[in-house]
Design brief:
Helices cover 26% and strands 12% of the residues. By secondary structure, it is of the alpha+beta class. The protein has a six-stranded antiparallel sheet, covered by helices on one side.
């Protein structure tokens, strides 16, 4: 049986991911799993007293660079952070600023500034999918099967 896939196997652009990881490792990050690198917590998070954790983890998601990484910061507890993960990106953000370490650090600094101001100027949720990543054994939902199957109204099943 083959090895489990890792971030490079599932990246849409593995070469860009390698460039990003090279930057991470040059800045003191070490690989801790197939999708994660741990390194020094960004100074703006420490200076703003958002956490006292000296290490943070960057988790690369499949489809790199089309999905931003998740940033896990132990003991961070504030609005726009859930499950110890910073909520940095609005869903419609297609900037791919996260594809460089400087772009990611710039965004973390912006987040820290927003946090210092109580997120008063922030309207929309960022990384909303973080809030719904609870591990559960099953999910139940109601769907209208005719709509899912794309049946036109005149071909729908009788109710």
């Amino acid at each position: 049986m083959g090895a489990e896939p890792d971030a490079f196997d599932l990246a849409a652009d593995p070469d860009r991911l390698r460039e990003f990881v090279t930057e991470l490792e040059a800045d003191g990050f070490e690989r801790t799993g197939p999708f994660s690198w741990e390194g020094p917590t960004h100074p703006s998070l420490l200076e703003g007293a958002h956490t006292d954790a000296e290490r943070m983890t960057i988790i690369v998601r499949p489809s790199w660079p089309y999905l931003p990484p998740l940033i896990h910061v132990p003991d961070i507890a504030t609005w726009h952070a859930d499950q110890e993960r910073l909520c940095l990106w609005q869903t419609e953000d297609a900037s791919q600023r996260w594809a460089t370490l400087q772009g990611l650090y710039d965004r973390i600094e912006e987040w820290a500034t927003d946090a210092d101001r109580g997120f008063a100027d922030v309207e929309n949720a960022r990384n909303p999918e973080i809030y719904w990543q609870e591990d559960i054994p099953q999910v139940v939902g109601l769907v209208e099967i005719d709509t899912v199957l794309g049946r036109p109204p005149w071909r729908r099943t009788a109710r």
